[in-house]
Design a protein that fits this description.
Elements (H helix, E strand, L loop, with lengths): L1 E2 L19 E5 L2 E5 L10 H15 L2 H8 L3 H14 L7 H16 L17 H10 L6 H9 L16 H4 L10 H11 L14 E5 L5 E5 L7 H16 L4 H16 L2 H13 L5 E7 L13 E8 L1 H12 L1 H7 L17 E10 L8 E4 L3 H7 L2 E5 H13 L4 H5 L3 H26 L18 H17 L2 H5 L9 H13 L15 H16 L6 E6 L2 E6 L2 H21 L2 H11 L5 H14 L4 E5 L2 E7 L2 E8 L4 H11 L4
Parallel strand pairs: 3-13, 8-10
Antiparallel strand pairs: 1-9, 2-3, 4-5, 6-7, 7-8, 9-10, 11-12, 14-15
The protein binds zinc ion.
Length: 657
């Protein structure tokens, strides 16, 4: 599972501490950023070497992901690379510029379909011009085939089809199935799945499904002597080098199993690998490497190839350890009825990491949190790793500050509010998230006999509200300063004003005009903000102000707001503990769903005028071996700033297919 910051509308928070430039390039609806790797210099030489080989293994999988997205992606990328590198004609023209924008979009999406929307996008330059470029670099013989695929709107429309009346397997441009229908694929898996197995393999995770010459359904495995063999061989080579300098025996065993899995394609071995991988909680360097998330497959089976290397942020991780160690104190002091409190309470400690290398499905667009493995039975029996990725989150924030416009500037009331948010917002926001994840969800208990499913379709939004309120209430608690988690007694105010601004206004930028608010997290935020606005109206706790026709919501009384959070937390905990479905439904229907159409329109217009790019992605730093007298004495991090150059470099260095 991944948590994605796909629609990066964060206000831009935290003070930037250096001249490091985060925002590198903007085009179409995309922006490209870069990130730093804090903690790299504190690694031992062996840890750096380990991370280096894992990063090489990650980058060697790049072509697999391109081919998975659509089988025409690699030939198209190759011709685009050829043009950028060898075209001798005029590059200063409008049409060439349009061609370059197409190339940048292609690299960003790892193919011809939008990475998020999944629809095919098109070059703005004419087909005749594209043809002339291909001919000029000796690719004239490929024009007929490739240009039709690039320009024809009627073929390969969507990577993963969302058609409601057609066959989503046939209509999907992704390369997971060929010459087969949805019914045939479903029947095939029905016939091979063992429904009685309590530890089932992930059937179909690492294969393409097609038909043999006799018309039988067959799976072509992605393994060292199968499809994608040349890339997988390179991945294995680097994984073996990594195993030789692993930090501990668990990592070594895990890597051995991963190589065995790539060699055999055996999904039982993949499970064995994951069980070992979950056990490694002591190492500093960690990784993801394999066919992981199944979102790209219309049938939700096939794993998109993904590589990820990261190092633990020991200091930030400590915070969640401290919170977990004090879980009982928080439970005892939470403002809910004692009947609904846990007598014995355990927190969850999530690991905070910094990315070192993003690859495959995680590059350039990348998640800000990950929870793996995906197999339910492994999660139940052996646990899972939940991580938040600090340096990526920070890079998003800092890049937003570099942008000449920001949602903070547009929607916050005055300079004092903006400055205060810039000073403490990043801190307070992270700590609120920690409280939400480590303690909020795990707090409280149901009364005996109340079913966990009692809240029905309102369960997710109410549960998120409960965890958020728990976090909001305690972010402001003096205990947080005492534990050394909050820097001072006022910093929480940055989170409070931001939360209200977002819940009552800013988040509606993501909802289409005329549509209700339906996503669970967004409902939760609206519920909390609207409820507090209404209940605090008589004391003017949150004030609606209008200036030059623009609406603002300003928090006047932070202590009273905290008190309102406490009251709502107590009520939602009661609803959940007693299984009071009607009351839960009433809260959501009253406060979370309907958006005031006039305000909605205003918010959309103000946001559009900011001209912010909704989607972001990253380039990687290079990890470069430093040699002295024929021996590697260090690995240093080199921060690139050229998006297109990195794409072309990767094509040259890691082109395996
Ligand atoms: Zn949550």
């Amino acid at each position: 599972m991944m948590m994605t910051g796909v629609l990066a509308i964060t206000a831009g928070c935290g003070q930037k501490k250096s001249d490091f430039k985060y925002l590198l390039d903007e085009f179409a609806d995309l922006k490209v950023m870069r990130y730093q790797i804090p903690g790299w210099d504190e690694l031992t030489l062996q840890q750096k070497e380990y991370a280096y080989h894992l990063a090489e293994a990650a980058k060697w999988g790049r072509d697999i992901h391109w081919d998975q997205n659509c089988k025409w992606n690699l030939p198209i990328r190759h011709t685009v690379e050829n043009i950028i590198e060898n075209y001798k004609g005029d590059r200063e023209t409008k049409e060439f510029e349009q061609f370059i924008v197409y190339a940048k979009r292609l690299f960003f999406a790892n193919g011809i379909h939008h990475h998020y929307a999944e629809d095919k996008f098109f070059p703005e330059c004419s087909q005749a011009y594209f043809k002339s470029l291909m001919e000029a670099v000796g690719d004239g013989d490929k024009c007929a085939e490739l240009l039709d695929i690039i320009y024809n709107p009627d073929i390969l429309q969507q990577r993963r089809s969302t058609s409601t009346d057609g066959d989503i397997v046939v209509l999907s441009a992704g390369n997971f199935y060929e010459g087969v229908t949805r019914a045939e694929v479903e029947k095939y898996y029905e016939s091979i799945e063992d429904k009685t197995d309590e530890t089932p393999i992930a059937y179909g995770l690492n294969t393409k499904v097609t038909k043999d010459s006799k018309g039988n359904i067959v799976e072509i495995p992605w393994k060292i002597d199968g499809m994608y063999g040349p890339a997988i061989a390179k991945i294995c080579q680097e994984l073996k080098l990594a195993a030789a300098c692993a930090e501990n025996d668990i990592q070594k065993r895990a890597l051995g199993l991963l190589v065995k899995y790539y060699e055999t394609g055996d999904l039982r071995v993949w499970d064995e690998f994951n069980i070992e991988w979950v056990k490694d909680t002591i190492g500093t360097v960690d990784f993801i490497n394999g066919f992981i998330e199944d979102y790209n497959d219309p049938l939700g089976r096939k794993g998109a190839w993904e590589g990820y290397v990261n190092i633990k942020d020991h200091k930030a991780s400590e915070r969640s350890v401290i919170l977990s160690a004090n879980a009982q104190w928080f439970e005892d002091h939470s403002p809910v009825d004692p009947r609904f409190k846990k007598k014995e309470c355990k927190g969850i400690s999530a690991k905070v990491i910094n990315a070192v290398c993003l690859a495959g499905d995680s590059y350039p667009s990348t998640p800000i949190g990950i929870n793996l493995p995906n197999a339910d039975w492994i999660r139940k029996m052996y646990g899972s790793k939940s991580v938040t990725i600090a340096n990526i989150t920070h890079a998003y924030d800092y890049a937003a500050q570099e942008s000449p416009t920001s949602t903070l500037d547009e929607f916050a009331w005055d300079d004092a509010e903006k400055a205060f948010y810039r000073e403490w917002g990043s801190w307070a926001d992270e700590i609120h998230t920690d409280l939400h994840e480590c303690l909020g969800h795990g707090s409280g208990q149901l009364l005996p006999g109340v079913a966990t499913t009692a809240m029905g379709e309102y369960a997710s939004a109410l549960e998120e509200a409960r965890a958020d309120l728990f976090g909001l209430y305690f972010t402001a608690d003096p205990k947080m300063v005492e534990l050394g988690i909050m820097p001072n007694k006022d910093a929480y105010k940055a989170e409070y004003s931001n939360y209200i601004r977002n819940g009552l206004m800013v988040q509606f930028t993501r909802v289409e005009l005329g549509r209700p608010n339906t996503e669970a997290h967004m409902q939760n935020r609206k519920l909390i903000a609207e409820w507090c606005y209404e209940k605090g109206a008589k004391d003017n706790v949150i004030e609606k102000k209008v200036r030059d026709g623009k609406t603002y919501f300003v928090v006047n009384d932070y202590e009273k707001l905290r008190d309102l959070f406490a009251q709502l937390l107590a009520e939602i905990q009661r609803i959940k503990s007693e299984g009071d479905y009607e009351a839960g439904k009433n809260l959501i229907e009253t406060y979370a769903v309907n958006i005031d159409p006039k305000l909605h329109k205003e918010v959309k217009e103000r946001y559009e005028a900011l001209n912010l790019k909704p989607y972001g992605g990253f380039i990687n730093p290079d990890i470069v071996p430093v040699e002295k007298n024929g021996k590697i004495v260090d690995y240093k991090v080199v921060y690139n700033d050229d998006y297109l150059k990195q794409q072309l470099d990767y094509g040259r260095k890691y082109g395996a297919l």
